[in-house]
Structures are given as C-alpha cells and as structure tokens.
Specification:
elongated, 61% helix, 11% strand, two-stranded antiparallel sheet, mainly alpha
Length: 93
Amino acid sequence: MQNTEIIFRNTEFFICPNFGHNKNLTKEQYNKIEQIQELSKDIINTRKYLNALYLDYVNNYVTIEYMAEHECLSVEDLKVLLSIGKKINNKEY
C-alpha cells in the first residue's frame, strides 16, 4: 500500500489513500484518518491561498500599505502573510 506523506510545521501525517479497504480499522481509527485527510486539504488550500496572495502583491500592487487597505488587513499582518507566501512560492516552506 502506497502512503502519501504530508509535512506541515514539523508534524508528519501519513495518509493511506486506500484506508477504506482495510477491514482491521476500528470506527475510531477510520474517523481519525478522515479528520487527517480533511486537515491535509485545509493545509493545501492555505498554501495555495498564501502563494496566490504573494503573487498578487508582486504582480499588481506598488506598496504593502495599498494592498493591506484593499485586503482589509493591517500592514503588519499582511507582511507576515506575504513572507510565508514568498517562502511557499520559492519552495522553502
């Protein structure tokens, strides 16, 4: 059985795509695997959002202040999001 490895913030989740065919799992184990799969979808969506936010800033905005106003965020919060987005875009994170 092939496992897919997802690493996020020094936490490792091993998700088996064929977990439904394993008859040895208890209902609790099955529910836990489903929760981990939902979390992995949220992680992937967050990474895509932060990458898109960074690319939007690079391609469409002159200043961080202008983008922060447009996105209804504080400048400090936007700086944090953009720094994470930059790392994701550069495949460092």
